[in-house]
Amino acid sequence: MEFPDLGCRCSFKACQQLDFLPIRCDACGSKFCCSLAQCFFPFLKVYMLPVCPLCNKPVSCPRDFPPDAAVSAHIDRGCQPDPTLTSQPVYSNKCSLTGCKRKEVCAVCSSCSKTFCLQHRHPQDHQCNKTQSRPIHTRKFVNSLQEALRRSLTLNAEGHSG
């Protein structure tokens, strides 16, 4: 004999079991039987950070951690932020060119190995000293390299044809 006025049916369509002590999901508001006590849409839950009653600042707390324990730990630290949760600055790289204050994704110069913003990333844009000190290949040196390459290709071609 069922008591339709007592309890309610499980919100899960495949179950629909009558439960006298249904569990209400705080994420979606649906009621589930004790065997399906977990909601299928936990991402719908509105999550609010707990606020410290002493300093009135929000206390960072992971979703699966009890908020009361996080506030208690915050108070035990003297209302100081958790040192394990301190984040690194988003833009830690700064342009190495004097006078430029841009903090963005930086490129490393292949010549001088310094970091520069996108505007100053090319060696000619930041007056790179390393590029000016590089030996400039003369026409004579280039011709001798081409001649050596031509000779080695000729020797390889003669060795493979016979």
UniProtKB/TrEMBL annotation:
InterPro entries, per database record: AN1-like_Znf, Znf-C2H2_ZFAND2A/B, Znf_AN1
GO cellular component labels: endoplasmic reticulum
Domain (AN1-type) ranges: 95-133
GO function term, MF aspect, one: zinc ion binding
Keywords linked to the UniProt accession: Metal-binding, Repeat, Zinc, Zinc-finger
PANTHER family linked to this entry: ARSENITE INDUCUBLE RNA ASSOCIATED PROTEIN AIP-1-RELATED, ZINC FINGER AN1-TYPE CONTAINING 2A-RELATED
Protein name as it appears in the record: AN1 type zinc finger protein 2B
